[in-house]
Design brief:
Elements (H helix, E strand, L loop, with lengths): L1 H40 L18 E6 L4 E6 L4 E10 L2 E4 L5 E3 H8 L10 E13 L2 E17 L6 E9 L1
Antiparallel strand pairs: 1-2, 1-8, 2-5, 3-4, 3-6, 6-7, 7-8
C-alpha cells in the first residue's frame, strides 16, 4: 500500500513541476513581448503623420456672356484648374480649351435641326470631357450636363441666331 501512495505523490509532484515549467515559459514570453513593445515606443524617430485629402469630383457650371453669344464654363470648386474641355452635342465634338469659353456659333450646326418653335428656352444634353489639375495631380472627368439655349431673331431678312442661357448638372 505504501508503494501505491508513494507513486501517487510522485505523480503529483511531476504534474506540479510540469505546470510550473509552463507558467515560467508563459511569464518569459509575456516579459519579452512587453520589452519589445517598450523598445519600439521609445525610438528617437518622430512619428510621421500624413494627411491625405480626398479627391473632389469635378462639377462644372456655365454662365452666359455677351448677350448669350458665349458660355463661360468654370469648375464649381476653386481648387480645380482646367487644362482642356471637350463638349459633345448631337455627335459633334467641340474643343473648348482651358479658358472654358464656348461660342454659340460652335454649337449652332449641332442644334440647327431644332430651330422650330418659339423663343422659349430649350434644353439639350451635352457630354463634357475635361482634364484638370487638383492639388498638383492631373485628373480626368467625363459628365453629362444640360445646356439651356434659345433661338432669337428671324424676320424678313434676318435669320435666327442661337443664344446660350446656362449649363447645369
Amino acid at each position: 500500500m505504501t508503494d501505491s501512495k508513494s507513486s501517487k505523490s510522485e505523480s503529483r509532484r511531476r504534474w506540479v513541476t510540469f505546470g510550473e515549467i509552463i507558467g515560467l515559459a508563459a511569464l518569459l514570453i509575456s516579459g519579452l513581448g512587453l520589452w519589445l513593445s517598450w523598445q519600439s515606443s521609445h525610438d528617437d524617430k518622430p512619428t510621421r503623420v500624413v494627411e491625405q485629402k480626398l479627391a473632389i469630383p469635378l462639377i462644372l457650371r456655365g454662365a452666359a456672356e455677351r448677350d448669350g453669344r458665349q458660355l463661360v464654363i468654370t469648375p464649381v470648386e476653386p481648387s480645380h484648374a482646367l487644362e482642356s474641355l471637350t463638349v459633345t452635342l448631337a455627335g459633334r465634338t467641340t474643343d473648348v480649351g482651358s479658358d472654358g469659353r464656348l461660342s454659340a456659333g460652335d454649337l449652332e450646326p449641332a442644334l440647327k435641326d431644332k430651330k422650330a418653335g418659339g423663343d422659349s428656352v430649350r434644353k439639350a444634353s451635352v457630354r463634357i470631357a475635361a482634364r484638370y489639375v487638383e492639388a498638383g495631380t492631373e485628373r480626368r472627368a467625363i459628365g453629362t450636363y444640360v445646356l439651356s439655349y434659345r433661338w432669337e431673331g428671324g424676320g424678313l431678312f434676318g435669320g435666327r441666331s442661337l443664344r446660350l442661357v446656362e449649363l447645369s448638372r
